[in-house]
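Kindly draft a polypeptide, keeping tokens residue-aligned:

***
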Amino acid sequence: MSRRRAFLASAAGGAGLLSAGLWPAATAASPQPNTRAERVLRYAFSTAETGFDPAQVSDIYSRIVTAHIFEAPFEYDHLARPYKIKPCTAVALPEVDAEFRAFTLKLKPGIYFHADPAFGGKPRELVAQDYVYSFKRIYDPATKSPGQSILEEQGIIGLNELRETALKTKQPFDYARPIEGLQALDRYTLRIRLRESRPRFIYTLTAGDVYGAMAREVVEYYGDRIMEHPVGTGPFRLHEWRRSSKIVLARHPGYRERYYDAEPNPDDAEGQALLARFKGRRLPMLDRVEVAIIEESQPRWLAFLNGEQNLLERVPPDFVPQAIPGGALAPHLAKRGIQKYRVPASDVTLTVFNMEHPLIGGYAPPQIALRRAIGLGLDIPREISLGRRGEAIPAQAGITPNTFGFDPNLRTEAGLYDPARARALLDTYGYLDRNGDGWRERPDGSALTLELLSQTDQTSRQLDELYKKNLDALGIRLELKVGQWSENLKATRAGHFMLWRVGSSASTPDGQTALERAYGPSVGKSNLARFKLPAFDAIYEQMKALPDGPQRQALFRDTNKLMLAYAPYRFHVHRIITDLAQPQVHGYRRPPFWLGWWQFVDVEPVPSSG
């Protein structure tokens, strides 16, 4: 969740359809019999997708798919660590004025959208106006884009005025009206002007999964079915979709000539070896990617062990002792040539408190004390050892590792498990067991019963059990409301919840995107807690214009203090992620915070046993 990038969104119902259309013979090689074995990556998502319109989705699983269909002007180098930005659809990095308020970039000619009925069955060249349209569409109230709040922070001149006009007049959004902040200077040149200095605006221009180029013809052709018909310029196109069951993407046959090239650090032995192996290979190397939706951990694990899948994205916690005892690959897997990739994730798990709920929300001392007592009473060390099998570290605040603003030396109340102090807080502020039934009541004597949204998967069930035991020990009654993740997200964004436990992954190298979850104007979007504090918002606004450095780092500390003091969230852990791959998979490397990587992976075809 948060941006991010972990924006989150619900999907329209209905069966998924093919993204139709063939690449015309005039722009592709003549058809030849396909005699070579296909190179296919097969793995599973643990949570169902919601759809594939980048302007509407925000869950990470849908965005993994859109990251391979749509392209931004820039992208992250696959091998560089911590990160390096390079051109994607742009010719070169943008020209930027001294105040970081004007960004000018040129697109490469000869980049084409996937052939589609929206273009009469033919491809259509990408032009600067497509990015103008795509950014405007995120601001269209009819789109209801969760990405609008992030884009609003960048302050593209004129976009908000277009949105406000549409809202006030109840008229359709005026896409034809020119604005100063988005200008197609010619067919391939785009200029973006911002209201204020934004030194990190280029991160927005790398997020193809959310801000990738869409064609207006496609959006208008498919209308309400646009979530089912993603048409981009990326290396893959949607080939088959069975909602919440299976997603198949195929190589885009008309994808431009791109070749494997990267810039790993000189001391990065693994990265240098990958570069030596793949340099000069045409991208994408895969013919197809098949993604199954398997929510339960056991069948996902068995599908990998049986060779039905050649990548296991995240070893399920239940199988960590079998797969990586003590962090090392189990001998029986090593003998099979299984490959291990273990990295600290740029993420955080958290409990979201609804600040507008009359029981758990509010800014008065008793309400703050209740939330802080819950936080102190949650046994995070036990969550790590049992629920996550040791594959996590305690989170001291909400900033994720590997991003600017994260302080590895920070120690806060969020890292404490102190049930005695939690009970003392509850006693002090009047949360007492007045009738002797073992459960506390609110200060006014009314019932104190909390409701936690949860999911049906095994890991959630184990964490729920521990959560309930922790609150039982405090004398707080907890009820679980179990449902689908997408429905829980929908309820949370609408403010129809009390507590929800969820995870959020970084999508840029900047930790400020994690702070958006407490920024007042983002209520109902990334700010799921619906937290509103002018003092926090003022610091947040100040941070946006500052370059990275000691002054900005100090403001991160100030925002951390406010979030911990008011406790709209209880931060739990930063996870450690282990992925496993079959021996025929080559080139895999988990990105720290971007989502596009399929095109850089090769899978050797497995010889037929017959």
Q: What stands out?
A: DSSP finds 18 helices and 23 strands in the chain. The chain has a mean pLDDT of 91. The longest helix spans residues 458-474. The first strand starts at residue 40 and ends at 45.
